[in-house]
Amino acid sequence: MADAEPATRPGGRTARVRADVLAAVEAELTEHGYDGLTIDGVAVRSGVHRTTVYRRWKTVAGLLVDLLNAGRDDTWVPADTGSLEGDLIALNREVYEALTANPSITQAVIAASFRTPEAAEALTEFWTDRYSRSAVVVQRAIDRGELPAATDPHQLLVTATGPIYHQLVLLRRPMPPATADHYARAAAVAARGGLRSEHA
Amino acid sequence: MADAEPATRPGGRTARVRADVLAAVEAELTEHGYDGLTIDGVAVRSGVHRTTVYRRWKTVAGLLVDLLNAGRDDTWVPADTGSLEGDLIALNREVYEALTANPSITQAVIAASFRTPEAAEALTEFWTDRYSRSAVVVQRAIDRGELPAATDPHQLLVTATGPIYHQLVLLRRPMPPATADHYARAAAVAARGGLRSEHA
Questions:
Q1: What is the CATH number of the domain that holds B33?
Q2: A172 touches chain B (CB under 8 A)
Q3: What is the ipTM of this complex?
Q4: B contacts of A170 (beta carbons < 8 Å)
Q5: What is the tens place of the pLDDT at every residue in B108-121?
Q6: At residue B199, does pLDDT exceed 80?
Q7: pLDDT for res A33
Q8: B94 and B40 part of one domain
Q9: A116 and A49 in a common domain
Q10: What is the CATH number of the domain that holds B88?
Q11: What Rg value do the Cα atoms of chain A yield, rounded?
Q12: Helices A105-113 & A117-143 angle (0-180, nearest 10)
């Protein structure tokens, strides 16, 4: 979900320290949850001196926020499968994998977002970036003539992904992988159905 | 969301004490959040002696769990509007109102569910009950011939409601009320679209 080493800053001691620290934050967070995340624990695991960690990140919330910010520096783009349904299924499978991984860094970060406002804000920004990048899926479908030009990309992407998050994160109800595909197909059918009704 | 006075137990001193205490829990939770919820605060606000509150509910988590359990004793049923789309819109409007109320007891309970496993479990049970009661919406649509008999009620209801929860609770992105209607319509179109493709 959040790549610890930003692709845009290869090498350099500062970049390496950040990569080591953020990798340790991910590991500590998934192992112990937000309550078990401490600056000292991150320092020990990363091999970076605790004074450095305190000086640069200040608080546990600061570490989490930087982890999410680092995720926005990566080069992730949604898969291009050639169809709206295929692209949404690929997207939903990524969401499903992230939420059902054991341990799941995504679940840990979501839980943390209910503990500190800084984490909530950083997560909102992380997702805003991810959903913006995913909008190309809708644009490609518009360009292919699969969808009307007025289709709202955000609404369509939330129609596809929202049910997975709701079921796995809030309802806390187990879900087979095929159901993630089902929610993607439902969103595609609904968006294309909108096309029909608009032209009717 | 959670009716403080269970409809099945009218009157009686024990029932009145419970109603007073749970009303105070709701009020304290929405005003101060889970971090600000204390047994002493609930005792003062409810006018019930703190020894009684401690003896019966034991912990803050115990108070929250009982609030959610009380919600399962109420007589809530989904609106019957005569069409699948109408029923889903009515349902989504209820979800939207609950999540955007200021303060929102639903948002407060969701946040609390990330703090204590007991609250998470009680919330899952509360929602399991609510989604079970809502399945009648899908059954009525099947009976009317709007949907194939094999339609999965839970999947359809999560397709309709999931995007609202995702956008307002996890993405923390403001949403106009019309978008809640849009997600309901998308779910109805997708479910009916599934009917078409199955018969194609």
A1: 1.10.10.60
A2: yes
A3: 0.88
A4: 110, 113, 123, 127, 165, 169-170
A5: 899 989 988 999 99
A6: no
A7: 83
A8: no
A9: no
A10: 1.10.357.10
A11: 19
A12: 120
Structurally, chain A folds into a number of domains equal to: 2
Whether A4 is covered by a domain: the verdict is no
The one-letter amino acid code at B90 reads: A
Q: Does A193 touch chain B (CB under 8 A)?
A: yes
User: Which tokens hold the place of A172?
Assistant: 């806390």
pTM of the model: 0.88
Q: Domain containing A48: what range?
A: 13-71
Same domain, A177 and A89: yes
Q: Are B42 and B34 a contacting pair, CB within 8 Å?
A: no
Residues A151 and A124 in one domain: yes
Tell me the mean pLDDT in the region A146-154.
95
Asked whether residue B131 is domain-assigned, the answer is yes
Neighbouring residues of B189: CB distance < 8 A, sequence distance ≥ 6: A189, A190, A193, A194, A197
pLDDT recorded at residue A63: 93
Nearest to B161 among A127, A164, A166 (CB): A166
What would you measure as the largest C-alpha separation in chain A, in angstroms? 66
User: If you average pLDDT over residues B70-87, what whole number do you get?
Assistant: 93
Residue B182 resides in a domain = yes
Burial of A145 (0-12, 13-18, 19+ CB in 10 A): exposed
Q: Which residues of B touch A115 (CB under 8 A)?
A: 114-115
The pLDDT, as a whole number, for residue B195 is: 44
On whether any CB of chain A is under 8 Å from the CB of B148, the answer is no
| C-beta separation of B69 from B122 below 8 A | yes
Q: pLDDT at residue A187 above 50?
A: yes
Q: Does B69 touch chain A (CB under 8 A)?
A: no
Asked whether residue A180 is assigned to any structural domain, the reply reads: yes
